[in-house]
Known about the structure:
The chain has helices spanning 2-11, 17-62, 67-118, 132-153, 164-167, 171-195, 209-221, 223-271; strands at residues 13-14, 120-121. By secondary structure, the chain is an all-alpha fold. The chain has one domain (24-119, 129-269). The protein has a two-stranded antiparallel sheet. Helix 3 (67-118) runs parallel beside helix 8 (223-271). The longest helix is centred in the N-terminal third of the chain and has 52 residues, at 67-118.
Amino acid sequence: MKSEKNSVRTRARPLSADDWTRMRREGPSALAWMRDGGLADARSRALALVWAGGMPFAGYAWLGWTPLLMLAWLLIDCANTLIADSARLALAGPALKVAHRKDQQCTEMLGLASDLAEGMHRSSATAQRTSPQMLYFFGCVATLFMFAFMLPGAPHLGIGQWRELLADPFIPWLALADLVLQTGRAAYAGMVARGGKRGSNQRIFVESGSNVLLYVGVLMLIWLPINFGALGMVLMLAAINLVRFGFGLYAWWYMPVAMRELATQLERALGAGSAHPGGDSGDLSRTPATGCGN
Length: 294
């Protein structure tokens, strides 16, 4: 019981002067990063999740997709994500490291702004940081496992045969559209990152880490198709894609809200610096147009 209380204390504690000092020190660059394209990029990634998660529902409702075709879309989207990330790494590998570091720092500042608004420090001081190359590696491993497991196993679950893909008039074109969408976003971000100054427009991110979460979801829910066949596959894919679709919508809505909260708390920290121990007051008009961490 004592250890549980201690663990709670490490997650939630009263605000300190250090929290306000950090907001004054790192908040301006975080807000500048969000305003100078960071928000638009985050919402673009959120809409990509909405597209990927919503397509199976549209296919099932209006295109006559079978459970096998819904599964095929999941695998196709995972493969296309890896192809797009391969392009990102090839075009702008060094920029990926910079962008990921700055994006993670901005995420920490958004969490700190929420803490300051609530009057209690709940978020971790430093988020768990993973390199883009590591995310890509784990995404590759997860995707390979999904393909190795699902390609031979799906027909034995009673949901159909893979030759259905050749007969469906929509899957090939939608798969091509998804590939063009993902690689197009990757190529554009890569070219902008290579052409811009270090840290200015380097907003390029590995996205195949989401494949790991999909694989975890499949492992957690695979008992559904094993026990209930086609119905179980529909339920499993509906649950996984509903989470993707819902999270994408939530992120699209929440990011502007979080940015406004960051601006509000930064104004409090800078405008009333003398009221909080440990820092000088400041002016939002002096917010530097640089990324986080500069």
